[in-house]
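User: quick one, fold this
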Amino acid sequence: MTNIEELRAQLLGRIAASAQPRDILKADEIKQLYSVIPTLEPSERGTYGKAVNELKIALEAAVAAREAEVENAAVEPLDVTAPWDVNTGPVSLLPTDQGTQHPLTSELERIIDIFTRMGFEAHESRQIDDDWNMFGALNFPENHPARDGYDSFRTEEGFIPPAHTSTMQNRVLKAGKAKLEAGGYIASVSYGRVFRNEDVDTTHDHTFYQQEGIYVSETANLGQMIAVLKSFYEAYFEQGMNIKTQPGYFPFVEPGLEFCIERPASIGGKPGDWLEMLGCGMIHPNVLRAANIDSEKYRGFAWGGGVERMIMLRHGIEDLRHFESGKLQFLRKFA
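Assistant:
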């Protein structure tokens, strides 16, 4: 046992001074310790074997710490607050000519471009919000299951990482009220990252992106909404689309609909292959009233859906988890 302690001190010293510390785990001295076990009395083997294993665990921890130390020492310091040329030398530390946009960024820009060309303003959603904008202003009842921690995350202070971009609706409606009362209309799309307490698999993730829109005027109707959405999907997929709607329940619209597209053959579909893309409907009067808009005079429609779902269809991506993985093999496909 004394020999084990002496060897521990010796090997830990060698690891601390080595640039290749993992090689020390293969040292002959360690192999010899294991070879001693069969020669011991049965009553001694358990205690001795435990001590050898504890030594091995301690050495592995020391190796991991030393490897991190060696790696960090090899990284040149980069002052992100300094002027650009301070961080350049014979070899630039910031090779901007090698970067590309993430597919989520480029596809969001494409989505926003389509809607802004249709006359909608664009607003980026928040990544932290309060209960009122997340639920109260959107006609969610006090006991609605979406308010529960099983569906939505909450911070210790009671704030919420938004589960949908609808968290922007009340703000957009209030900001557009004057324009509406002056005889105009509200036309806005919101986009951004959302968070849900989801089990992660190929089609679900706890973090993803949404896009949604609202339109309010004195004459807004479902026919206009369906035309807007059909035009958007045809522009996004660059082809004609067959569409259908079916009833759906969402607290902030009445009536509520699910908007579906028939996946065309060009993206792997066949006749009758319907895909639900988003929820939509006429804005509930309570949502308008929460923004101090006269629900007797004005009406509107709204929609909201996931962004990754569209990108996966357009580019034939099989796993939603790729978007947040940071895997270069995936990202290089969009370089």
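User: anything notable?
Assistant: The first strand starts at residue 121 and ends at 124.
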